[in-house]
Description:
495 residues; Translation Initiation Factor Eif1; Rossmann fold; 7-stranded parallel β-sheet; 22 strands; 37% helix
Amino acid sequence: MDNQTHYKIHISKLNEVYLQVECDNPGICYELVQYFTFEVPGHKFMPAYRNKVWDGKIRLFSDKTGKIYVGLLSYIKEFCDRNEIEYVIADDVDDTDNLDIEKVTDFVKSLKPQSKGKLLEIRDYQLDAIQCALSNHRGMLVSPTASGKSLIIYALIRFYNYLLKDKKILILVPTTSLVEQMYSDFIDYGWNDKYLHRIYQGHEKDTDKPVIISTWQSLYKLDKKYFENFGCVVGDEAHLFKSKSLTTIMTKLINCKYRFGMTGTLDGTQTHRLVLEGLFGKVEKVTSTKQLMDKDTLANLKIKCLVLKHKENECKEVKDLKYSDELQYIVAHKTRNDFISRLCDKLSGNTLCLYQLVEKHGLVLYNLMKDFDRKVFFIHGGTDTETREKIRAITEEQTNAIIVASYGTFSTGINIRNLHNIVFASPSKSRIRVLQSIGRGLRKSDKGDIRTTLLDIADDFSYKDRKNFTLNHFLERINIYNEEEFDYEIDRIRI
């Protein structure tokens, strides 16, 4: 980029989704394309790449159209500063307010949010997050499970419901359970049903009510016209927004100025982060699990890693298996499944046992546990919302129940206030899945419990100097625990 400092980049707003970038020199546009091009992790294993119809890369800027997500403005500035390129920004692009924290505090407290009839304590980090969001008009707020994200969302919605007299507000969540949970939370906080409309299968999509809470599956096929009158959007569990249906909705909201994503964690990849920032706005870390545990806001977490050392003849069998075959071998391992079932029965308190494969593992574990002298529930993707909610409600009243549940149903968005133990029965390396699952057990119960135990079960099929796939995944989970400053201990058990 030498000798190009006299060139300029002109940035204007095409709509609330895209910026229009014009370069005096085509070479600069080419450099921008490269700057915003990333390889997708694991792309070599994806069919499109294997079939040679895709090169495994995501390009967030097009030199043909000059379009790029509005939320990536700060990265364009960074690119220009780094390469000493002058940029000119239209007046309507950098539109922010600097709201006073005292005024934000007064507004939130004026809402008098409550839970079960008791006035809620509004924490400093929640107020800071609300101020940041309202000041910037956009943001990707990262805050761990049980940190009070729904109260932050509620405050934002109440503010924009007052501000946007002629526009509607859209809240997007991944499941029908979360639609109902968000609705219930808002009612519990003290709002009126006349403002809230829920959309999922069987519900009317058109409404005069100003706030719509919907699954994205219910809306993404609708025409652009449906989305024209939304002035504010909130995406909860936004780490899931890399799916095509979600980005489709977000790019149809061309008049939607105020955009906020909420999530407990990101997947750690740069591509994923930039897509989310492009759609919602800059990432802002609200607080951390460690900080909340230190302040006694969350239950304390104890992690026990149980590394099962398998017999040498089994290690020989596993050493040449592909990952998928190794997983199938592990979940079908009778001694291992017996160990997990006995472990769950010995644990004191409510226990959540998480599995990955329904028929081949979840059902097997449930059948081993269903005749225990305690309540045992089985939940999977096919379990309807009403049943899940009933089980959740029962569990909050129980002190010694077992829930055998798939990662997909209970790792995201389900709040259980009376959970004492979590068992990772299936191997996983997903940062999002691990942290979201842990979050299920960190809410303090009304009964004053202050300790949650995570039993992380790993499998050592090492043979000579070769480590098996799922053992390497366990080591990746250890890295996550270290990054999050969680305390853990490792026990090795021969089976």
